[in-house]
Design goal:
mainly alpha; three-stranded antiparallel beta sheet; two-stranded antiparallel sheet; 27 helices; 11 strands; binds protoporphyrin IX containing FE; iron; hydrogen peroxide; Peroxidases_heam-ligand_BS; Catalase_peroxidase
Length: about 750
């Protein structure tokens, strides 16, 4: 019988550990060729950051930009440029590449070039962006492995803006392309898409997923659910842009700045004329989708969103035209030729926008319901008025917000490549640079470990180092031990970190640091000391179990200050669960737990965030348990009588057939506890959580558990634990790895 917890779980889980991408794809595109039977792609190409960095840094970005600029105005017959300039189209492409980023788990964004793959390549909101990428193919072909699609799309957005008259704030390379769709991202319930019912529309997406509706980057231009109410649209805009950490000013700057350029395309009814999206299109279309049978299907006859028209009188030039138009006129609803709701000036004489293709033809400017939100919502109105009256303030706000939008998922400045990288921004979680003349050496490391172990217990030091380093997430490369932000709010108060105990440990380590740094020229940062002390504790725990090991250590972390830490932006990194510490937070509304993720799925998600393999995840859980590193001091899963030692006891006792496990009566709100009893005597031996028992129940994890439980594996277990531990400690050391 399914447990109460199982039964309560629905599949709204925000990542794909309980549901496979292929099942989604199979439903949407039943004819899609299934490549799963072949091994994962092993390209002889740049698929890791180090080799990409080497190649990218050899590029002459000036030359690349010139090449891209050449494409801007070379109109192609198969997709003619509006106004003879592809700039606006490329700005939309870059925005849609970046705009899937979501703060709550750092997934999405342009960092992997995932716009090329399903489902994103076929989302209705990404309509005709397949053409934008094909226009760029000559550039990609020329630079090959040296320029990833991820970098090319964002750089092209910048070149587009510059070619239309606005200098950008900067550009950083470093996006390494993926070769198949990410298996771990849940974009939303893919049952019904926007285009299926323009006006009626698809499923409303749960917080905290990026968009409000499936198939949209952010919000419906016609208003929520197709309802043309600018105030309700403002509500949706505020909600969704804040999921990407954009405040009101940044939001207005981005929407107004974006719609200073280009036009919408809705020459005729999409339902009657537009063919399947790229993933569902016929083989001879060669990856192109949305082929239209309406007249020429391109240029003046193009159908993309179904809305039609431009916002300004000069859509290929950076100017104040968007706000001029917005404030100059009163607006009334109308329908585009495709039947979508949009707005035009009440003054019927206004005819100021030139046609994008036809000589001598002009039109009224248009606004979407979402554009009018920038005038109707009182707070947005204040920002819009300020920008209208102060074009320089608007330009600066747009440049900075554009840089944030397009670089948010790239991580700290140490991951940003190339000569166009601007100074670190607060949202990049800056850390001070390292002074190598003060670097500690091996003898200092030994001395510091011993000093830390004199003041704190093994478990205290292991937990503190883990708390510091395991805040890292591989999705947007934030968090980690560098910066020593575990000393600062908000991280120092996170419940998972047992704040009271943490304070005691940090005070003790500060004393160690003070004594050491006061002695001579060598200096140790708290960030380094926390890791170093954790390493010393792991060595001590291994030693207590009879294994002599040394955990590798590379000095070079520095301590960030409170001023360098944006508390609100950092708060999204707080783990609501950490299976490695057997911690499961209370189920808050809209937390992954609330969305149906099981404790074991949350463990897998954390392992993903830490870049761990199944084996590394397993060995870390097993070792952390015998060391006794549970949050809150719970004894769940500590399947050993030698707590504090690094041994394979967790796996030995989990695989021991003399123990029978039963769900315990004490079922808490979020957690299921199990009792392990002696089959013969009925005596209670252990307590454990779902995260513990999954290593005995899941066949793949059980295989790993049996491997580590074997008598010949004690040394290998410690060796593997040390390697996985070191990986976690080093996750954010881009200065060393890359
Ligand atoms: C409330 C948020 C937004 C909504 C609902 C929205 C919606 C749309 C729609 C429906 C189109 C027409 C697509 C077509 O038919 O070709 C469009 C075009 C465009 N959007 Fe947005 N957009 C939003 C925000 C942004 C942002 C933040 C940017 C960039 C910073 C941007 C840049 C553009 C550009 C440049 C075009 C013109 C593309 C072209 O000329 O081909 N938009 N937008």
């Amino acid at each position: 019988m399914a447990s109460a917890v199982d039964a309560a779980k629905q599949s709204r889980c925000p990542f794909h550990t309980q549901k496979t991408v292929s099942s989604v794809e199979a439903t949407w595109w039943p004819n899609k060729l299934d490549l799963k039977g072949l091994p994962k792609t092993q390209h002889a190409t740049a698929n890791d950051i180090a080799s990409y960095k080497e190649k990218f840094l050899k590029l002459d970005l000036g030359e690349v930009k010139k090449d891209i600029e050449g494409i801007m105005t070379s109109s192609q017959k198969w997709w003619p440029a509006d106004y003879g300039h592809y700039g606006p189209f490329f700005v939309r492409m870059a925005w849609h590449a970046a705009g899937t980023y979501r703060t709550f788990d750092g997934r999405g964004g342009s960092g992997t070039g995932n716009l090329r793959f399903a489902p994103l390549n076929s989302w209705p909101d990404n309509g005709n962006l397949d053409k934008a990428r094909r226009l760029l193919w000559p550039i990609k072909k020329k630079y090959g492995e040296s320029l990833s699609w991820g970098d090319l799309m964002i750089l092209t957005g910048n070149v587009a803006i510059e070619s239309m008259g606005l200098e950008t704030f900067g550009f950083a390379g470093g996006r390494v392309d993926i070769w198949e769709p990410e298996a771990d991202v849940y974009w939303g319930p893919e049952k019904k898409w926007l285009a299926a019912e323009r006006g009626g529309l698809g499923d409303k997406l749960d917080q905290p997923l990026g968009a409000v509706q499936m198939g949209l980057i952010y919000v419906n231009p016609e208003g929520p659910g197709g309802n043309p109410d600018p105030l309700q649209a403002a509500h949706d805009i505020r909600t969704t842009f804040s999921r990407m950490a954009m405040n009101d000013e940044e939001t207005v700057a981005l929407i107004a700045g974006g719609h200073t350029f280009g036009k919408a395309h809705g020459a005729a009814d999409p339902g009657a004329h537009v063919g399947p999206e790229p993933e569902g299109a016929r083989i001879h279309e060669q990856g192109f989708g949305w082929t239209s049978t309406y007249k020429s299907g391109v240029g003046a006859d193009a159908i993309t969103s179904g809305l039609e028209g431009a916002w300004t009188d000069n859509p290929t030039k950076w100017d104040n035209g968007y706000f001029d138009t917005l404030f100059k006129y009163e607006w009334e609803q109308t329908k585009s030729p495709a039947g979508a709701t949009q707005w035009i000036p009440t003054d019927k004489e206004v005819n100021s926008v030139p046609d994008a293709h036809l000589e001598g033809v002009s039109h009224a400017p248009i606004m979407f319901t979402t554009d009018l939100a920038l005038k109707m919502d009182p707070t947005y109105l204040e920002v819009s008025k300020n920008f209208h009256e102060n074009p320089d303030v608007f330009a600066t706000a747009f440049k900075k917000a554009w840089f944030k939008l397009t670089h948010r998922d790239l991580g700290p400045v140490s991951r940003c490549l190339g000569g166009l990288v601007p100074p670190a921004q607060i949202w990049q979680d800056p850390v001070p640079s390292f002074d190598s003349s003060t670097k500690i050496e091996d003898a200092d490391v030994t001395e510091l470990k011993a000093a830390a172990l004199e003041k704190c217990s093994v478990v205290q030091l292991v937990k503190t180092a883990w708390a510091s380093a395991s805040s890292y997430r591989s999705t947007d490369h934030r968090g980690g031990a560098n910066g020593g932000r575990i000393r600062l709010e908000p991280q120092s108060s996170w419940k998972v970190n047992d704040p009271e105990d943490l304070k005691v440990v940090l005070t003790a380590l500060e004393e160690v640091q003070g004594t050491f740094n006061g002695k001579g020229d060598k200096k140790v940062s708290m960030a380094d000391l926390i890791v170093l002390a954790g390493n010393g504790a792991v060595e001590a725990a291994a030693n207590a179990a009879g294994n002599d090991v040394t955990v590798p250590f590379v000095a070079g972390r520095t301590d960030a200050s409170a001023e360098e830490t944006d508390v609100a932006s950092f708060s999204v990194l707080e783990p609501t669960s950490d299976g490695f510490r057997n911690y499961l937070g209370m189920s808050q509304p809209n937390s992954p737990q609330d969305m149906g993720a099981t404790a074991e799925a949350l463990l897998v998600d954390r392992a993903h965030m830490l870049g761990l393999s199944k084996g590394e995840m397993s060995v870390l859980v097993g070792g952390m348990r015998t060391i006794g590193a549970n949050a809150g001091g719970s004894s769940n899963g500590i399947l050993t009588s030698n707590v504090g030692q690094l041994s394979n006891d967790f796996f030995v006792n989990l695989c021991d057939m003399s123990t029978a496990w039963t769900p315990s009566a004490e079922l808490t709100q979020v957690e299921e506890i199990f009792t392990g009893t002696d089959r013969e005597t009925g005596e209670e031996k252990w307590k454990a959580t779902r995260v513990d028992l999954i290593f005995g129940s899941n066949s793949e994890l059980r295989a790993i558990a049996e491997f580590y439980a074997s008598d010949d594996c004690k040394g290998k277990f410690v060796e593997d634990f040390v390697a996985a531990w070191n990986k976690v400690m080093m996750n954010d050391r881009f200065d060393v790895v890359a």
